[in-house]
Design a protein that fits this description.
Strand order of the largest sheet: 1-2-3-4-5-6-7
Structural class: alpha/beta
Strand content: 5-15%
Shape: globular
Number of helices: 9
Number of domains: 1
Largest sheet: 7 strands, parallel
CATH class: Alpha Beta
Distance between the termini: 31 Å
Radius of gyration: 17 Å
């Protein structure tokens, strides 16, 4: 729920857009609160808007929800689905894997690229967290046709490495291993030996200081930026640093 005013949202977006539209190798997706989406339009193709969530029905009596069709008609190109803060019980009982699957299918139906978040709460030495991740991915991709996997983005966000309660930062090596694991699970779902074209992002306390190491060593396609995105100067620096090494 940032920022708290439309004026500040426009200022931040304008600052980010000026830098993002100059990028030749980086696409920037800005996902503000729903109430600002209508007023945040990009004039370039390198910086587009996304939503922080969506509802799976196109219209109807669903008070407080925003449908995939409404977002499509506003020109929204991406939607974050299953973010850890929405899976968390602070949102009632939390979003289930089955609910997230419905949202992914609705997103694809509306020609909105879903950014599907997965991630474990804890990382145990026995490796049980891999089974947890596998289940999240399998349920997210349930009943999705094979030709749609190129249109899905997966964002890995280990909950134990995020926010003020983070146990520690994840390492680029750990993220690299998980990116390989995610692609393997998706390959197994569709019974193919080829590497799936699904893009993998990493979200976990990434900033302008560690972005280069993560990008060079983790083998991922991009990032889901949280706190650092609230400061246009820091976010612009992140964009510039990734552009330099792409």
């Amino acid at each position: 729920m940032n920022p708290v005013s439309s004026k500040l949202a426009k200022q931040n977006f304008s600052s980010i857009k000026k830098v993002a539209n100059k990028m030749r190798n980086v696409e920037t997706v800005v996902c503000p609160p729903f109430i600002y989406l209508e007023n945040l339009k990009s004039t370039g193709h390198r910086c587009v808007t996304g939503s922080q969530d969506l509802f799976w029905e196109p219209e109807g009596s669903y008070t407080g929800e925003v449908s995939f069709l409404q977002l499509k008609n506003m020109g929204v190109k991406y939607a974050i689905i299953g973010h850890s803060e929405r899976r968390n019980p602070t949102h009632g009982e939390g979003e289930t894997d089955e609910l997230i699957n419905l949202k992914i299918r609705a997103s694809l139906k509306g020609m909105i690229t879903p950014i599907v978040c997965v991630g474990e709460k804890t990382r145990d030495e026995k490796g049980d967290y891999l089974s947890f991740l596998k289940t999240q991915i399998e349920k997210a991709f349930a009943d999705l046709p094979k030709n749609s996997i190129k249109d899905v983005v997966v964002a890995y966000e280990p909950i134990w490495a995020i926010g003020k309660d983070a146990k520690r930062d994840a390492t680029p090596k750990e993220v690299f291993e998980i990116s390989i694991f995610i692609k393997k699970v998706i390959s197994d779902i569709y019974n193919t030996k080829s590497v799936p074209p699904t893009k993998i992002l990493y979200g976990g306390s990434v900033n302008e200081k560690n972005i280069v190491d993560f990008y060079k060593e983790s083998g991922i396609d991009g990032f889901l930026i949280g706190r650092a995105s609230l400061d246009p100067k820091k976010f612009a620096e992140i964009l510039k640093r990734v552009e330099e090494i792409k």
